[in-house]
Amino acid sequence: MGFKEILFNLPEVKGPVEKKLPFNTKLKWTLIILIAFFILIKIPLYGLASNSLQRFEYLAIIMGTDFGSVISLGIGPIVMASIILQLLVGAKLINIDLRDVEGKKYFQGLQKVIAVFFCFFEATIYVVMRGLEAQPGMQLLLISQLILGGILIIFMDEVISKWGFGSGVSLFIAAGVGLQLFTATFGFIGPQNTISAIGKLWVFFSSIAAADTINATAAAAAIIATVIIFLVVVYAQSIKVEIPLSFDRLRGFAMKWPLSFFYTSNIPVILTAALLANIQLAATLVENAIGHPTFLGGFSNGAPISGLAAFLSSPAILDSIIRGGFTNVMIMQSFVYMLFMIGGSILFAVFWVKTSGMDAGNVANQILSSGLQIPGFRKDPRVLESILNRYIMPLTVMGGAAVGLLAASADLMGALVRGTGLLLAVMIVYKLYEEIAQQHAYDMHPALRKMIAE
Fold first, then answer.
1. What would the pLDDT profile of 410-440 be if each residue is shown by its tens digit?
2. Using CA atoms, how far apart are residues 287 and 238, in angstroms rounded to an integer?
3. Which domain holds residue 37?
4. Which of 168, 200, 222 is the last residue of a domain?
5. Whole-angstrom Cα distance, residue 349 to residue 262?
6. pTM for the structure as a whole
């Protein structure tokens, strides 16, 4: 049996027979997987030593998980496999025709194999380098639990992709951030499982009752910052440039091709945040392995205090000003952090457009292959590409800069959750809302269902 035959016969979640699933079926499976995710995230790893898991907080947001649980790997293996394969295909290093059914199946099989490989690789690295330190004699058991949790996430993502709304990757990120946001706002269980006002809302009311203006102001500032970022992201999501198009064979029929302000969506900030998280992770693992800090950074109670990791961390400027702890060093940290987030997001946005088939040339070919053209212009891919170039690259740069700025601003303003996580959650939920609304409209109108089926 050849390699392709193996990929075509990998274990998988069987897809639905229907071309379009009913709204209730999609909602049912989405809720089932969501409940399973929340259950798994609360199951601790057996054999885990006393670890400082706070140092993984930033990485946990990006990976849609909670370190110390059986699904500590989160979506990490899936994301790494997807990014690597997308770049290889986009750069034509691997020739896969994604328009062909067999090509899509080959791509999905290859992605699953790479994701499973990363489950083994990441689980081993975490345990061997003591990122998740095992109790004596428990290393192999700990690695096995991490691998099993990673594979479970792969199949749960597949269930959502085939039977639910959106993708499992997006759902798990949004669920993880949503849980953190709820806890940060309404949490009332302290570190020792005691009843304590740890949520910012309860801190605000208890501080007002105790006439503690500093804590009340700090809590109110965190809540207001979160609301402001939320509203700005929702507004920016709705900004689009619409290219008027007409059908070359059907006179009188026209449509608009939308180009979003966030043209590359949340990909740039995910990659930039993942790079930052991996720098912190590498610094932590190296420090654990050799027993002392390096130029990558040193940590105390999970927080970076020296090296590159400290300079690329975000100080809570607003909270420090309110509490009187603001220092000049924070200005330099804030500048470096914001510059890195904006510059990194622009760089990754441009890189993603060039390698993932979202550039003007590919979009022009996509439009023309759909039988569309811009009214008043010659039906030539070079003409259409030159027109699209006026919009796509500026939107790529501005959208990348905007998501980087918003994520950095949320961190510096001290939002209830990390800025990157908040940004991702809002953008994911907005896309999910659009898909649910579209599915609901499809179910409500039989004529629309018949037209799509045909």
1. 888 888 887 778 888 888 888 788 778 777 6
2. 44
3. 1-168
4. 168
5. 10
6. 0.76
